[in-house]
Amino acid sequence: MTATKAPTEPPVQRTVRRPGDRIFAGSAKGSGIFILIVLAGVAAFLISEALPALTAPADEIPGGEGLTAYIAPLILGTLLGAVLALIVATPLAVGIALFITYYAPRRVAAVLGYVVDLLAAIPSVVYGFWGLAVVAPRMVPFHEWAADNLSFLPFFAGPASTSGRTMFTVGLVLAVMILPIISAISREVFSQAPALHREAALALGATRWEMIRMAVLPYGKSGVIAGAMLGLGRALGETMAVAIILSGGAGATLNLISNSNPSTIASNIALRFPEATGLGVNTLIASGLVLFVITLVVNMLARWVVNRRADFSGAN
Amino acid sequence: MAKRIDVSDLNIYYTNFLAVEGVNVSIEPRSITALIGPSGCGKSTFLRSLNRMHEVIPGARVEGKVVIDGQDLYGSDVDPVNVRRQIGMVFQRPNPFPTMSIYDNVVAGVRLNSTRMKKSEMDDLVETSLKGANLWNEVKDRLSRPGSGLSGGQQQRLCIARAIAVEPEVLLMDEPCSALDPISTLAIEDLMMELKDRFTIVIVTHNMQQAARVSEATGFFNLNGVGQPGRLIEFNPTEKIFSNPDQKATEDYISGRFG
Amino acid sequence: MSTETPLAPIGSTSAASPGPVQTQRRLPRFAAAGLFLAGVAVGALLSALTGFSLALTVLYGVVLGTLAVYAVSRQVEGRRKATDRLVTSLVSTAFAIAMVPLLSLVYTVLDRGLARLDASFFTNSMFRVVGEGGGAYHAIVGTVLITALTTLIAVPIGLLTAIYLVEYGTGRLKKAITFFVDVMTGIPSIVAGLFAFALFTLLFGNDVRLGLMGSVALAVLMIPVVVRSCEEVLKLVPNELREAAYALGVPKWRTVVKVVLPTAIAGLGTGITLAVARVIGETAPLLITVGLITGTNFNPFEGRMATLPVFAYYQLTQPGTATQAFIDRAWTAALVLIMLVMGLNVVARLISRLFAPKTGR
Question: Which InterPro entries match (chain B) (predicted)?
Answer without folding.
Answer: AAA+_ATPase (IPR003593), ABC_transporter-like_ATP-bd (IPR003439), ABC_transporter-like_CS (IPR017871), P-loop_NTPase (IPR027417), PstB-like (IPR005670)
